[in-house]
Protein 1
Amino acid sequence: MAGEDYPRTYQQLQDWFRDDAACLDYLARLRWPAGFTCPVCGGGESWRTKQGLWMCRACGRKTSVTAGTIFHRTRTPLSTWFAAIWFITSQKNGVSAQGLQRVLGFGSYETAWAWMHKLRRAMVRPDRDLLSGVVELDETFVGGRSTGRIGASSDKVPIMVAVERDGPRRLGRVRFQVAAAPNTLELVEFATATIAPGSTVRTDGARMLRRLADLGYTHEYVDGYRAPDPAAVLPGVHMVASLLKRWLIGTLHYGVDRAQLPYYLDEYAFRFNRRSSTSRGLLFYRLLQQAVHTDPQPLPTLVRPFYQADCS
Ligand SMILES: [Zn+2]
Protein backbone atom coordinates (compact mmCIF):
# COMPACT_ATOMS: atom_id res chain seq x y z
CA MET A 1 0.00 0.00 0.00
CA ALA A 2 1.32 3.46 -0.90
CA GLY A 3 2.77 5.32 2.06
CA GLU A 4 2.97 2.08 4.02
CA ASP A 5 4.70 -0.64 2.00
CA TYR A 6 6.40 1.78 -0.35
CA PRO A 7 6.90 5.55 -0.54
CA ARG A 8 4.19 7.66 -2.10
CA THR A 9 6.43 10.51 -3.21
CA TYR A 10 10.09 11.33 -3.74
CA GLN A 11 10.00 13.36 -0.53
CA GLN A 12 8.77 10.32 1.35
CA LEU A 13 11.49 8.19 -0.25
CA GLN A 14 14.12 10.58 1.10
CA ASP A 15 12.51 10.62 4.54
CA TRP A 16 12.35 6.84 4.78
CA PHE A 17 15.77 6.00 3.40
CA ARG A 18 18.18 8.48 4.95
CA ASP A 19 20.99 5.98 5.53
CA ASP A 20 22.14 2.47 4.71
CA ALA A 21 20.63 1.03 7.90
CA ALA A 22 17.14 2.10 6.82
CA CYS A 23 17.72 0.70 3.33
CA LEU A 24 19.02 -2.60 4.74
CA ASP A 25 15.91 -2.96 6.93
CA TYR A 26 13.69 -2.45 3.93
CA LEU A 27 15.65 -4.91 1.78
CA ALA A 28 15.46 -7.47 4.59
CA ARG A 29 11.66 -7.21 4.62
CA LEU A 30 11.60 -7.78 0.88
CA ARG A 31 14.12 -10.60 0.86
CA TRP A 32 12.86 -12.42 3.94
CA PRO A 33 9.14 -11.60 4.08
CA ALA A 34 8.58 -14.32 6.70
CA GLY A 35 11.54 -13.07 8.75
CA PHE A 36 15.25 -13.87 8.74
CA THR A 37 16.26 -17.51 8.61
CA CYS A 38 19.88 -18.53 9.07
CA PRO A 39 21.18 -20.20 5.87
CA VAL A 40 23.40 -22.54 7.95
CA CYS A 41 21.26 -23.77 10.85
CA GLY A 42 17.81 -22.50 9.96
CA GLY A 43 17.58 -20.48 13.15
CA GLY A 44 15.21 -17.53 13.09
CA GLU A 45 16.72 -15.44 15.88
CA SER A 46 19.30 -12.83 14.94
CA TRP A 47 20.81 -9.50 15.89
CA ARG A 48 22.31 -6.79 13.74
CA THR A 49 26.03 -6.19 13.78
CA LYS A 50 27.61 -2.75 13.42
CA GLN A 51 28.48 -3.64 9.83
CA GLY A 52 24.79 -4.09 9.04
CA LEU A 53 24.90 -7.90 8.99
CA TRP A 54 22.34 -10.33 10.44
CA MET A 55 24.09 -12.55 12.98
CA CYS A 56 22.43 -15.84 13.88
CA ARG A 57 21.90 -16.20 17.64
CA ALA A 58 22.19 -19.97 17.46
CA CYS A 59 25.32 -20.54 15.37
CA GLY A 60 26.93 -17.11 15.00
CA ARG A 61 26.86 -17.09 11.20
CA LYS A 62 26.75 -13.55 9.74
CA THR A 63 24.53 -12.95 6.73
CA SER A 64 24.40 -9.93 4.46
CA VAL A 65 21.01 -8.99 3.05
CA THR A 66 22.66 -7.79 -0.17
CA ALA A 67 24.88 -10.86 -0.71
CA GLY A 68 23.81 -12.78 -3.78
CA THR A 69 21.60 -9.94 -5.04
CA ILE A 70 22.28 -7.26 -7.65
CA PHE A 71 23.50 -5.04 -4.78
CA HIS A 72 26.24 -7.58 -3.97
CA ARG A 73 29.39 -5.76 -2.80
CA THR A 74 28.22 -2.41 -4.05
CA ARG A 75 30.37 0.47 -2.89
CA THR A 76 27.68 3.04 -3.52
CA PRO A 77 25.31 3.94 -0.66
CA LEU A 78 22.07 1.99 -0.95
CA SER A 79 20.12 5.24 -0.71
CA THR A 80 21.63 6.16 -4.08
CA TRP A 81 20.45 2.83 -5.52
CA PHE A 82 16.98 3.48 -4.10
CA ALA A 83 16.96 6.94 -5.70
CA ALA A 84 17.99 5.40 -9.03
CA ILE A 85 15.21 2.82 -8.84
CA TRP A 86 12.72 5.53 -7.93
CA PHE A 87 13.84 7.62 -10.87
CA ILE A 88 13.70 4.72 -13.34
CA THR A 89 10.26 3.55 -12.22
CA SER A 90 8.65 6.95 -11.75
CA GLN A 91 9.26 7.99 -15.34
CA LYS A 92 6.51 6.48 -17.40
CA ASN A 93 8.81 5.68 -20.31
CA GLY A 94 11.98 5.09 -18.35
CA VAL A 95 15.27 6.87 -18.72
CA SER A 96 18.48 6.65 -20.67
CA ALA A 97 21.85 6.04 -19.01
CA GLN A 98 22.67 9.72 -19.71
CA GLY A 99 19.52 10.77 -17.90
CA LEU A 100 20.40 8.61 -14.90
CA GLN A 101 23.96 9.91 -14.87
CA ARG A 102 22.71 13.48 -14.86
CA VAL A 103 20.12 13.12 -12.11
CA LEU A 104 22.37 11.13 -9.77
CA GLY A 105 25.43 13.22 -10.54
CA PHE A 106 27.60 10.26 -11.48
CA GLY A 107 31.07 11.12 -12.69
CA SER A 108 31.05 8.39 -15.29
CA TYR A 109 28.60 7.39 -17.97
CA GLU A 110 29.78 3.78 -17.62
CA THR A 111 28.52 3.59 -14.04
CA ALA A 112 25.07 4.81 -15.05
CA TRP A 113 25.08 2.40 -17.98
CA ALA A 114 25.99 -0.53 -15.74
CA TRP A 115 23.28 0.37 -13.22
CA MET A 116 20.62 0.57 -15.91
CA HIS A 117 21.64 -2.84 -17.17
CA LYS A 118 21.79 -4.42 -13.72
CA LEU A 119 18.30 -3.18 -12.95
CA ARG A 120 17.01 -4.39 -16.30
CA ARG A 121 18.14 -7.89 -15.31
CA ALA A 122 15.78 -7.61 -12.35
CA MET A 123 12.78 -6.63 -14.44
CA VAL A 124 11.76 -10.21 -15.21
CA ARG A 125 10.56 -12.60 -12.57
CA PRO A 126 11.84 -16.06 -13.49
CA ASP A 127 8.65 -17.59 -12.09
CA ARG A 128 6.27 -15.21 -13.77
CA ASP A 129 2.80 -16.41 -14.61
CA LEU A 130 1.78 -17.71 -18.00
CA LEU A 131 -0.50 -15.62 -20.17
CA SER A 132 -4.04 -16.92 -20.38
CA GLY A 133 -7.47 -16.31 -21.85
CA VAL A 134 -7.34 -15.06 -25.42
CA VAL A 135 -3.77 -14.40 -26.59
CA GLU A 136 -2.52 -12.98 -29.89
CA LEU A 137 0.80 -14.38 -31.09
CA ASP A 138 3.01 -13.12 -33.90
CA GLU A 139 6.43 -11.84 -34.88
CA THR A 140 7.58 -8.33 -35.63
CA PHE A 141 10.92 -6.80 -36.56
CA VAL A 142 12.83 -4.05 -34.85
CA GLY A 143 15.91 -2.27 -36.06
CA GLY A 144 19.08 -3.32 -34.31
CA ARG A 145 22.66 -2.19 -34.57
CA SER A 146 24.89 -5.11 -35.41
CA THR A 147 27.71 -5.63 -32.94
CA GLY A 148 30.37 -5.47 -35.61
CA ARG A 149 30.51 -9.16 -36.27
CA ILE A 150 31.56 -9.88 -39.79
CA GLY A 151 28.61 -11.33 -41.63
CA ALA A 152 26.03 -9.67 -39.40
CA SER A 153 24.22 -8.40 -42.41
CA SER A 154 20.67 -7.79 -41.35
CA ASP A 155 20.00 -5.08 -38.84
CA LYS A 156 16.39 -6.13 -38.44
CA VAL A 157 15.84 -8.42 -35.50
CA PRO A 158 12.81 -10.73 -35.34
CA ILE A 159 10.88 -10.36 -32.09
CA MET A 160 8.19 -12.79 -30.95
CA VAL A 161 5.21 -11.14 -29.28
CA ALA A 162 2.37 -12.63 -27.23
CA VAL A 163 -0.30 -10.35 -25.82
CA GLU A 164 -3.51 -11.05 -23.94
CA ARG A 165 -6.82 -9.67 -25.22
CA ASP A 166 -8.75 -8.38 -22.27
CA GLY A 167 -12.10 -7.96 -23.94
CA PRO A 168 -12.67 -6.53 -27.39
CA ARG A 169 -10.72 -3.31 -26.92
CA ARG A 170 -8.34 -3.82 -24.04
CA LEU A 171 -4.96 -5.49 -23.88
CA GLY A 172 -3.68 -7.51 -20.96
CA ARG A 173 -0.13 -8.62 -20.29
CA VAL A 174 2.60 -9.01 -22.87
CA ARG A 175 5.65 -11.23 -23.37
CA PHE A 176 8.50 -10.69 -25.83
CA GLN A 177 11.45 -12.74 -26.96
CA VAL A 178 14.12 -12.28 -29.60
CA ALA A 179 13.92 -15.02 -32.22
CA ALA A 180 17.03 -16.56 -33.76
CA ALA A 181 15.37 -16.41 -37.19
CA PRO A 182 11.93 -15.40 -38.45
CA ASN A 183 9.17 -17.89 -39.32
CA THR A 184 10.47 -20.92 -37.49
CA LEU A 185 9.04 -23.34 -34.97
CA GLU A 186 10.66 -21.23 -32.30
CA LEU A 187 7.38 -19.30 -32.29
CA VAL A 188 5.57 -22.47 -31.19
CA GLU A 189 8.17 -23.04 -28.45
CA PHE A 190 7.70 -19.45 -27.35
CA ALA A 191 3.94 -20.01 -27.18
CA THR A 192 4.27 -23.10 -25.00
CA ALA A 193 6.74 -21.27 -22.72
CA THR A 194 4.58 -18.19 -22.23
CA ILE A 195 0.91 -19.19 -22.70
CA ALA A 196 -1.07 -21.46 -20.38
CA PRO A 197 -2.60 -24.59 -21.93
CA GLY A 198 -6.32 -24.19 -22.42
CA SER A 199 -5.92 -20.63 -23.69
CA THR A 200 -7.13 -19.47 -27.07
CA VAL A 201 -4.21 -18.49 -29.31
CA ARG A 202 -4.84 -16.26 -32.31
CA THR A 203 -2.25 -16.23 -35.09
CA ASP A 204 -1.87 -15.58 -38.77
CA GLY A 205 -2.27 -18.44 -41.19
CA ALA A 206 1.28 -19.83 -41.11
CA ARG A 207 0.98 -23.57 -41.51
CA MET A 208 3.53 -24.52 -38.83
CA LEU A 209 1.38 -22.79 -36.22
CA ARG A 210 -1.46 -25.26 -36.77
CA ARG A 211 0.25 -27.61 -34.37
CA LEU A 212 -0.77 -25.29 -31.53
CA ALA A 213 -4.09 -27.13 -31.66
CA ASP A 214 -2.26 -30.34 -30.71
CA LEU A 215 -0.49 -28.68 -27.80
CA GLY A 216 -3.52 -27.98 -25.66
CA TYR A 217 -4.59 -24.65 -27.13
CA THR A 218 -7.67 -23.53 -28.97
CA HIS A 219 -6.05 -22.23 -32.14
CA GLU A 220 -7.78 -19.49 -34.09
CA TYR A 221 -6.04 -18.33 -37.20
CA VAL A 222 -6.71 -16.08 -40.12
CA ASP A 223 -5.01 -16.02 -43.44
CA GLY A 224 -2.92 -12.91 -42.99
CA TYR A 225 -1.77 -12.84 -46.56
CA ARG A 226 -5.26 -12.33 -47.85
CA ALA A 227 -6.31 -9.79 -45.28
CA PRO A 228 -6.81 -6.33 -46.78
CA ASP A 229 -5.39 -4.67 -43.67
CA PRO A 230 -2.65 -6.59 -41.80
CA ALA A 231 -3.22 -4.47 -38.66
CA ALA A 232 -6.78 -5.74 -38.49
CA VAL A 233 -5.68 -9.37 -38.36
CA LEU A 234 -3.88 -9.27 -35.01
CA PRO A 235 -4.59 -5.75 -33.74
CA GLY A 236 -3.19 -6.37 -30.26
CA VAL A 237 0.21 -7.52 -31.51
CA HIS A 238 0.24 -4.73 -34.05
CA MET A 239 -0.41 -2.09 -31.40
CA VAL A 240 2.13 -3.48 -28.92
CA ALA A 241 4.75 -3.75 -31.66
CA SER A 242 4.32 -0.14 -32.70
CA LEU A 243 4.41 1.06 -29.08
CA LEU A 244 7.56 -0.98 -28.50
CA LYS A 245 9.30 0.52 -31.54
CA ARG A 246 8.33 4.03 -30.55
CA TRP A 247 9.67 3.40 -27.03
CA LEU A 248 12.95 1.97 -28.28
CA ILE A 249 13.52 5.01 -30.47
CA GLY A 250 12.22 7.59 -28.03
CA THR A 251 13.92 6.38 -24.87
CA LEU A 252 17.18 5.17 -26.27
CA HIS A 253 17.68 7.60 -29.14
CA TYR A 254 20.14 5.25 -30.80
CA GLY A 255 19.83 1.86 -32.40
CA VAL A 256 19.80 -0.85 -29.79
CA ASP A 257 22.78 -3.14 -29.58
CA ARG A 258 21.42 -6.48 -30.67
CA ALA A 259 23.05 -8.29 -27.77
CA GLN A 260 21.26 -5.98 -25.31
CA LEU A 261 17.89 -6.15 -27.04
CA PRO A 262 16.48 -9.00 -24.90
CA TYR A 263 16.93 -6.84 -21.82
CA TYR A 264 15.28 -3.81 -23.38
CA LEU A 265 12.35 -6.09 -24.18
CA ASP A 266 12.26 -7.12 -20.52
CA GLU A 267 12.15 -3.49 -19.48
CA TYR A 268 9.39 -2.66 -21.90
CA ALA A 269 7.32 -5.65 -20.78
CA PHE A 270 7.87 -4.66 -17.12
CA ARG A 271 6.52 -1.19 -17.87
CA PHE A 272 3.73 -2.28 -20.19
CA ASN A 273 2.41 -4.91 -17.80
CA ARG A 274 2.19 -2.32 -15.03
CA ARG A 275 0.98 0.58 -17.15
CA SER A 276 -2.37 0.83 -15.38
CA SER A 277 -0.82 0.82 -11.92
CA THR A 278 -2.17 3.87 -10.11
CA SER A 279 0.91 4.31 -7.94
CA ARG A 280 4.39 4.65 -9.41
CA GLY A 281 5.63 3.70 -5.96
CA LEU A 282 4.32 0.21 -6.58
CA LEU A 283 6.73 -0.17 -9.51
CA PHE A 284 9.55 0.95 -7.23
CA TYR A 285 8.50 -1.71 -4.75
CA ARG A 286 8.24 -4.46 -7.36
CA LEU A 287 11.60 -3.68 -8.94
CA LEU A 288 13.34 -3.57 -5.57
CA GLN A 289 11.62 -6.80 -4.56
CA GLN A 290 12.84 -8.49 -7.74
CA ALA A 291 16.31 -6.97 -7.34
CA VAL A 292 16.88 -8.77 -4.03
CA HIS A 293 15.91 -12.01 -5.75
CA THR A 294 18.20 -11.45 -8.75
CA ASP A 295 21.74 -12.82 -8.81
CA PRO A 296 24.73 -10.45 -8.85
CA GLN A 297 25.46 -9.10 -12.33
CA PRO A 298 29.19 -8.48 -12.72
CA LEU A 299 30.18 -5.98 -15.37
CA PRO A 300 31.59 -8.48 -17.92
CA THR A 301 28.24 -10.29 -18.11
CA LEU A 302 26.50 -6.96 -18.69
CA VAL A 303 28.80 -5.95 -21.50
CA ARG A 304 28.79 -9.32 -23.23
CA PRO A 305 25.58 -11.10 -22.38
CA PHE A 306 25.06 -14.61 -23.67
CA TYR A 307 23.11 -14.23 -26.84
CA GLN A 308 21.50 -17.14 -28.60
CA ALA A 309 21.84 -15.93 -32.16
CA ASP A 310 25.60 -15.54 -31.82
CA CYS A 311 25.85 -19.25 -31.20
CA SER A 312 23.60 -20.48 -33.95
ZN1 LIG B 1 22.57 -20.15 12.36
Protein 2
Amino acid sequence: MRIELAGVEKEYRSGGQALAVLQGVNLVIEEQSVTSIVGPSGSGKTTLLGIMAGLDRPTRGTVRIGDTELTALTEDGRAGFRAAHVGFVFQTFHLLPSLTALENVQVPLELSPEGGKLAAREIRERARALLDRVGLAERTHHYPAQLSGGEQQRVALARAFVTRPRVLFADEPTGNLDRETGSRIVALLEELNQDARTTLVLVTHDLALADRTDRILHIDGGRLREEALR
Ligand SMILES: Nc1ncnc2c1ncn2[C@@H]1O[C@H](COP(=O)(O)OP(=O)(O)OP(=O)(O)O)[C@@H](O)[C@H]1O
Ligand SMILES: [Mg+2]
Protein backbone atom coordinates (compact mmCIF):
# COMPACT_ATOMS: atom_id res chain seq x y z
CA MET A 1 0.00 0.00 0.00
CA ARG A 2 0.98 3.61 -0.52
CA ILE A 3 2.12 5.63 2.49
CA GLU A 4 1.52 9.36 2.77
CA LEU A 5 2.66 11.80 5.45
CA ALA A 6 1.52 15.42 5.46
CA GLY A 7 2.80 18.12 7.80
CA VAL A 8 4.07 15.55 10.29
CA GLU A 9 5.71 16.98 13.41
CA LYS A 10 6.84 15.17 16.52
CA GLU A 11 7.79 16.76 19.80
CA TYR A 12 8.88 14.88 22.87
CA ARG A 13 8.33 16.54 26.23
CA SER A 14 10.42 15.70 29.23
CA GLY A 15 11.10 17.76 32.34
CA GLY A 16 9.06 20.68 30.99
CA GLN A 17 11.27 20.85 27.90
CA ALA A 18 10.00 20.21 24.37
CA LEU A 19 12.29 18.51 21.87
CA ALA A 20 11.23 18.93 18.23
CA VAL A 21 12.35 15.71 16.53
CA LEU A 22 10.35 15.88 13.28
CA GLN A 23 9.47 19.20 11.68
CA GLY A 24 7.04 19.37 8.79
CA VAL A 25 7.66 16.02 7.13
CA ASN A 26 5.78 15.62 3.81
CA LEU A 27 6.32 12.36 2.03
CA VAL A 28 4.71 9.90 -0.37
CA ILE A 29 6.02 6.35 -0.58
CA GLU A 30 4.68 4.49 -3.57
CA GLU A 31 3.11 1.07 -3.32
CA GLN A 32 5.60 -1.81 -3.60
CA SER A 33 8.64 0.48 -3.56
CA VAL A 34 11.72 -0.06 -1.40
CA THR A 35 12.89 3.03 0.49
CA SER A 36 15.76 3.47 2.88
CA ILE A 37 16.04 6.16 5.54
CA VAL A 38 19.51 7.23 6.63
CA GLY A 39 20.69 9.88 9.08
CA PRO A 40 22.82 10.48 12.18
CA SER A 41 22.07 8.85 15.52
CA GLY A 42 19.31 10.73 17.31
CA SER A 43 18.01 12.33 14.10
CA GLY A 44 14.57 10.74 14.43
CA LYS A 45 14.71 7.67 12.16
CA THR A 46 13.10 5.30 14.66
CA THR A 47 10.59 7.98 15.58
CA LEU A 48 9.62 8.47 11.94
CA LEU A 49 9.32 4.73 11.29
CA GLY A 50 7.15 4.29 14.39
CA ILE A 51 4.84 7.08 13.26
CA MET A 52 4.57 5.65 9.72
CA ALA A 53 3.77 2.22 11.12
CA GLY A 54 1.12 3.55 13.51
CA LEU A 55 3.07 2.44 16.58
CA ASP A 56 3.18 6.06 17.66
CA ARG A 57 1.24 9.24 16.91
CA PRO A 58 2.68 12.48 15.55
CA THR A 59 2.18 15.68 17.54
CA ARG A 60 0.72 17.26 14.41
CA GLY A 61 0.01 16.17 10.84
CA THR A 62 -1.56 13.17 9.15
CA VAL A 63 -0.40 9.68 8.21
CA ARG A 64 -2.22 7.54 5.67
CA ILE A 65 -1.56 3.97 4.62
CA GLY A 66 -3.64 3.01 1.60
CA ASP A 67 -7.11 4.42 2.22
CA THR A 68 -6.78 4.50 5.99
CA GLU A 69 -5.89 7.65 7.89
CA LEU A 70 -3.93 6.22 10.82
CA THR A 71 -3.94 9.54 12.63
CA ALA A 72 -7.75 9.48 12.77
CA LEU A 73 -7.80 6.09 14.53
CA THR A 74 -7.75 5.33 18.25
CA GLU A 75 -4.87 3.35 19.68
CA ASP A 76 -6.95 0.16 19.44
CA GLY A 77 -7.87 1.04 15.87
CA ARG A 78 -4.21 1.41 14.97
CA ALA A 79 -3.35 -1.89 16.67
CA GLY A 80 -6.05 -3.59 14.61
CA PHE A 81 -4.76 -2.00 11.41
CA ARG A 82 -1.21 -3.09 12.19
CA ALA A 83 -2.28 -6.65 12.93
CA ALA A 84 -4.00 -6.84 9.55
CA HIS A 85 -1.57 -4.98 7.27
CA VAL A 86 1.78 -4.05 8.83
CA GLY A 87 4.98 -6.02 9.44
CA PHE A 88 7.89 -4.82 11.54
CA VAL A 89 11.51 -6.00 11.95
CA PHE A 90 13.58 -4.57 14.81
CA GLN A 91 17.32 -4.12 15.30
CA THR A 92 17.24 -6.26 18.44
CA PHE A 93 14.98 -9.00 16.97
CA HIS A 94 12.32 -8.72 19.74
CA LEU A 95 11.45 -12.40 19.78
CA LEU A 96 9.42 -13.67 22.72
CA PRO A 97 11.96 -15.63 24.82
CA SER A 98 9.48 -18.15 26.21
CA LEU A 99 8.24 -19.24 22.77
CA THR A 100 9.97 -21.48 20.22
CA ALA A 101 10.96 -20.19 16.78
CA LEU A 102 7.82 -21.73 15.30
CA GLU A 103 5.56 -20.26 17.98
CA ASN A 104 7.16 -16.82 17.54
CA VAL A 105 6.32 -16.92 13.84
CA GLN A 106 2.76 -18.09 14.51
CA VAL A 107 1.88 -15.30 16.95
CA PRO A 108 1.16 -12.41 14.54
CA LEU A 109 -0.89 -14.70 12.28
CA GLU A 110 -2.91 -15.93 15.26
CA LEU A 111 -3.59 -12.31 16.21
CA SER A 112 -4.50 -11.15 12.70
CA PRO A 113 -8.04 -11.00 11.30
CA GLU A 114 -7.09 -13.58 8.67
CA GLY A 115 -5.64 -15.91 11.29
CA GLY A 116 -8.94 -15.86 13.14
CA LYS A 117 -10.44 -17.75 10.20
CA LEU A 118 -7.65 -20.32 9.83
CA ALA A 119 -7.36 -23.67 11.57
CA ALA A 120 -4.45 -24.11 14.00
CA ARG A 121 -2.91 -26.57 11.57
CA GLU A 122 -3.00 -24.06 8.70
CA ILE A 123 -1.33 -21.44 10.88
CA ARG A 124 1.37 -23.91 11.88
CA GLU A 125 1.94 -24.96 8.27
CA ARG A 126 2.30 -21.39 7.05
CA ALA A 127 4.74 -20.55 9.87
CA ARG A 128 6.72 -23.72 9.18
CA ALA A 129 6.91 -22.98 5.45
CA LEU A 130 8.34 -19.54 6.18
CA LEU A 131 10.91 -20.91 8.62
CA ASP A 132 11.86 -23.34 5.90
CA ARG A 133 12.14 -20.45 3.46
CA VAL A 134 14.61 -18.62 5.72
CA GLY A 135 16.66 -21.80 6.14
CA LEU A 136 15.58 -22.70 9.66
CA ALA A 137 13.59 -25.88 9.07
CA GLU A 138 15.89 -27.64 11.56
CA ARG A 139 15.42 -24.99 14.24
CA THR A 140 11.64 -24.79 14.63
CA HIS A 141 11.62 -25.96 18.25
CA HIS A 142 14.61 -23.90 19.36
CA TYR A 143 14.05 -21.05 21.78
CA PRO A 144 15.53 -17.62 20.91
CA ALA A 145 18.34 -18.05 23.47
CA GLN A 146 19.39 -21.22 21.62
CA LEU A 147 19.73 -19.37 18.29
CA SER A 148 22.55 -17.21 16.92
CA GLY A 149 21.88 -13.52 16.22
CA GLY A 150 21.53 -14.12 12.48
CA GLU A 151 19.17 -17.03 13.11
CA GLN A 152 17.06 -14.92 15.47
CA GLN A 153 16.79 -12.22 12.82
CA ARG A 154 15.74 -14.84 10.26
CA VAL A 155 12.97 -15.94 12.63
CA ALA A 156 12.01 -12.26 12.94
CA LEU A 157 11.85 -11.99 9.11
CA ALA A 158 9.62 -15.07 8.93
CA ARG A 159 7.44 -13.55 11.65
CA ALA A 160 7.20 -10.22 9.80
CA PHE A 161 6.05 -11.88 6.55
CA VAL A 162 3.72 -14.52 7.97
CA THR A 163 0.64 -12.29 7.81
CA ARG A 164 1.51 -11.27 4.22
CA PRO A 165 1.58 -7.58 5.20
CA ARG A 166 1.07 -4.88 2.58
CA VAL A 167 3.63 -2.62 4.25
CA LEU A 168 6.76 -3.61 6.11
CA PHE A 169 9.08 -1.51 8.25
CA ALA A 170 12.57 -2.58 9.29
CA ASP A 171 14.57 -0.54 11.81
CA GLU A 172 18.28 -1.29 11.30
CA PRO A 173 17.62 -4.99 10.69
CA THR A 174 21.35 -5.66 10.31
CA GLY A 175 22.54 -3.33 13.05
CA ASN A 176 23.34 -6.08 15.54
CA LEU A 177 24.92 -8.50 13.08
CA ASP A 178 28.38 -8.82 11.59
CA ARG A 179 28.76 -7.67 8.00
CA GLU A 180 28.47 -11.02 6.33
CA THR A 181 25.48 -12.18 8.36
CA GLY A 182 23.92 -8.76 7.82
CA SER A 183 24.25 -8.98 4.06
CA ARG A 184 22.68 -12.46 4.11
CA ILE A 185 19.75 -11.06 6.07
CA VAL A 186 19.34 -8.25 3.54
CA ALA A 187 19.42 -10.67 0.61
CA LEU A 188 16.72 -12.70 2.33
CA LEU A 189 14.67 -9.61 3.10
CA GLU A 190 14.87 -8.56 -0.56
CA GLU A 191 13.91 -12.04 -1.73
CA LEU A 192 10.90 -12.32 0.59
CA ASN A 193 9.89 -8.80 -0.27
CA GLN A 194 9.99 -9.41 -4.01
CA ASP A 195 7.70 -12.42 -3.65
CA ALA A 196 5.32 -10.67 -1.28
CA ARG A 197 5.32 -7.37 -3.22
CA THR A 198 5.28 -5.41 0.00
CA THR A 199 5.94 -1.69 0.36
CA LEU A 200 9.21 -1.76 2.30
CA VAL A 201 10.74 1.06 4.34
CA LEU A 202 13.99 0.41 6.12
CA VAL A 203 16.30 2.40 8.36
CA THR A 204 19.96 1.65 7.92
CA HIS A 205 23.45 2.93 8.65
CA ASP A 206 24.76 0.74 5.87
CA LEU A 207 25.17 2.89 2.77
CA ALA A 208 25.87 -0.12 0.57
CA LEU A 209 22.47 -1.48 1.59
CA ALA A 210 20.74 1.88 1.11
CA ASP A 211 22.24 2.09 -2.35
CA ARG A 212 20.40 -1.10 -3.37
CA THR A 213 16.99 0.41 -2.59
CA ASP A 214 14.78 2.40 -5.02
CA ARG A 215 15.05 5.56 -3.02
CA ILE A 216 17.16 7.06 -0.22
CA LEU A 217 15.79 9.63 2.24
CA HIS A 218 18.16 11.51 4.53
CA ILE A 219 16.87 12.83 7.81
CA ASP A 220 18.70 15.55 9.67
CA GLY A 221 17.60 18.44 11.85
CA GLY A 222 14.03 17.11 11.84
CA ARG A 223 13.67 17.36 8.07
CA LEU A 224 13.84 14.94 5.16
CA ARG A 225 16.02 15.36 2.15
CA GLU A 226 15.85 13.16 -0.90
CA GLU A 227 19.03 11.71 -2.38
CA ALA A 228 19.58 13.14 -5.84
CA LEU A 229 18.79 10.71 -8.65
CA ARG A 230 21.48 8.11 -9.03
N1 LIG B 1 10.08 8.59 24.20
C1 LIG B 1 10.95 9.62 24.08
N2 LIG B 1 10.91 10.65 24.95
C2 LIG B 1 11.75 11.70 24.82
N3 LIG B 1 12.67 11.80 23.84
C3 LIG B 1 12.76 10.81 22.95
C4 LIG B 1 11.90 9.66 23.02
N4 LIG B 1 12.22 8.83 21.99
C5 LIG B 1 13.22 9.42 21.32
N5 LIG B 1 13.55 10.61 21.89
C6 LIG B 1 14.57 11.55 21.39
O1 LIG B 1 14.26 11.85 20.05
C7 LIG B 1 15.42 11.89 19.23
C8 LIG B 1 15.27 10.94 18.05
O2 LIG B 1 15.27 9.60 18.53
P1 LIG B 1 15.24 8.36 17.54
O3 LIG B 1 15.25 7.15 18.36
O4 LIG B 1 14.11 8.53 16.60
O5 LIG B 1 16.62 8.55 16.76
P2 LIG B 1 17.33 7.61 15.67
O6 LIG B 1 17.59 8.44 14.46
O7 LIG B 1 16.55 6.37 15.49
O8 LIG B 1 18.73 7.29 16.38
P3 LIG B 1 19.64 5.93 16.32
O9 LIG B 1 20.35 5.95 14.99
O10 LIG B 1 20.61 6.12 17.44
O11 LIG B 1 18.75 4.74 16.50
C9 LIG B 1 16.58 11.55 20.13
O12 LIG B 1 17.23 12.75 20.46
C10 LIG B 1 15.96 10.93 21.36
O13 LIG B 1 16.67 11.28 22.51
MG1 LIG C 1 16.87 4.34 15.89
